[in-house]
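Sample A.
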Amino acid sequence: MHYLMTNKGMILNLDQALEALVGYNVIFFGEDHDSRVAHEGELTLLTELAWRDASLVLALEMFERDIQDALNAYLEGTISEDKFFELARPWPNYQEDYRPLVELAKARGIPVIAANMPRRTAAVVAMTDTISSDVLGKDSKYLPRKLHLDSEEYYERFAARMKKMPHSAPMKGLNVEALYKAQVLKDAVMAASLEPFLDHRILFCCGRFHSDYHLGIPYQLQKNHPEIKVAVVVCAQSVIDLPMMDRSRIADFIWIDK
């Protein structure tokens, strides 16, 4: 059985939760990438929302902007899955965790947004501490019109996360401010990827740091579109160790799998 708890502590069964979720324009499911519960929750929400909204759109952090044409071609059936894999740089856990989402979208005719900034570009920003068309080169076409670096809370949470990284982590020796710029650039690019579809309901699957506390992608989106109604969903197992005050702030709905 699946339940969602609101940030006010109300327990909703799946039908009640879906009734609530269709009141939002963009629904973020913030996952831990290795969480089986999260991936099952994403597939459940995609399946159920698609039955309720024929114009639903799926957005994925797991694909980068420059492979959108390949993704579209695969969804339309004009290239094979092997060719798609060759072009799309799928994550190592794609087959088990994200392929079910893409295959459902393909079967149901659901558009899928390859939302993320190319990794190479985020790496350049992290190394140079600069966001400019000169630095980004051909990827500068993905730059959003506005990028908001003004969230002190997001910076503090990001810096704290960097401090907890093991010393052997590749990013450990880099400048925190530069890494933060790269992080916010990714968020802003992912928010901007939704622009052509803001007249649709969107389910966005992303790592939960990109959506927790309505920071990250939701922050960038709502700074530019304050009228957009955004819901954030996170799994119960991700918040169990948090103080109660944080549990009520981290998301609008907590996914409970029983």
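Sample B, a different protein:
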Amino acid sequence: MAKSHLTVMFSLGLGVVYAFLFAQAQVAFSGVDEAELKVSLMMIKVEKQKVRTAMVQMQFDEFRNYVSRNLPQKIPVNNEEAYPLRQLASVLKTSDSYKLKLVKASSLMSRGKALFEAEEYSKANTNFKKVIDYYSFSHHLIEAHYMYAESLYLQSDYERCVDVVKRMIELFPDNELTGHAMLRLGMVFEAERRSTEALEVYNTVLSTFPQRSLASKANQAIRELEL
């Protein structure tokens, strides 16, 4: 339990660091104005709040699980006055429900990906959207955003695709799937004859993910755009 808590807190702490570095990068390289800088600093505050909230939530969950495990052993059997305690124990025992929700999220992702492979993009998106809207605590959240954006792109629903990719950039700026989604964003701009914006996106991918396979794809897209 302690190790998992440390892992979560380390990951959340990285989010704060990334947000800070993002703000610094904007100041150094983007000619950012005061309003944009305030937005960047606000991102840092949000990430810090996430860390605090997650810590409180984990402490509460640990306490709740402890009580749900031990309280039933302290409740007298066949005692009417103990009924409220039995109700409390029932309410607190939510770990099984949480596990079922994780299974549901995984099921939705599997179904959505199968529909995606079958090129039934509209039906696939119904599943991806449910993961995003109702199971944001699931580890499938980032992939659900990416698959949703990809499906929208393949349906030529460029406006909504752009919205989803922008949301990914806000929520998961350092994730590799966000980099792939940004390549799609560049392709959307190319399809809309917005070459300058497409070039900016590809260069951003190149600078953000220089050590990954994304860099070669971004370089290739830049070369083809400049032909």
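Observation for Sample B: DSSP finds ten helices and no strands in the chain.
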